Amino acid sequence: MASLVEFILYSRFRAMLVAGILGGLSQLLLPLSLLSLAIVALFILRKGDQEGGFLLFGTTAVIVAMSFFIASRPGFTYPLVIMLLLPVYICAALLRLTSAQGVAVAAAGFCGAVFAIAVELFSGDAVAWWGAWLKTAVQGVEGASYQGFEDNGSILIMNGLITLLLGLTVVASVLLGRWLQSLRYNPGGFRKEFYVLRIPKAVVTGNIALLAVTAILNQRLMIDLLIVSMLMYFFQGMAVLHHGAAQKKTGILYLAPPYFLLTVAPHYVIVGMSCVGVADILLNFRKLPSQK
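The chain above was modelled as a monomer; its predicted structure follows.
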């Protein structure tokens, strides 16, 4: 794997080509977008903001060029990965600057909140806007129907749910890029960083204030932002889980159940780990030093 990292980082052009091709092919196989974004994050983490900026434009150009030859998915004129490149750039740049994964996760939460608010403001009605999009998008998913979203009521919180999903993809990509970097240049470093991941107190305070304001002005938007904020606390909860596994030296036996549930019932795990993350902010399970 370390040799693969060296191959990607050999030059800006090579990283651009690999990330762009994977991003373009994500129209055929959506999970490839995660790999594409992880390569972008890896390059930024290793080469810096300026080189990362060049990579961002080059990768976008490759993806757009490929989109002319690959049929688009219903609901997506261009691959979804394009709209996630800038948030990944921001999060990776902050992680490189601070070496604090919690800051990168908080940045993803901020980007998600901006996106959810923008959809609500510019659409005039986020529920109707996402509903119109879903009627097209479900055509590309076998067995899915728009009526199903109406029946279970998820259409009412679709702005928050989709933003949460996008945010999870951004964070997962940046953390994957960080892990790849650590394999070659800082063995064991990713694990040490992740064990102490926590959301800065200023971000937590700002999040509470934002929820309080939107609760007064727009309760539906407040619910969407509450869902989006789970992104941050979920990763802090996962850090607590992994830290506990390391302390108890239980390894895979301790981690397997939640990860299995994450594949079959992700909504329960996300909510549960978010609650653990919030509790960690209050109780400091890992006994980390107080934040300045």
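The mean pLDDT is 91.
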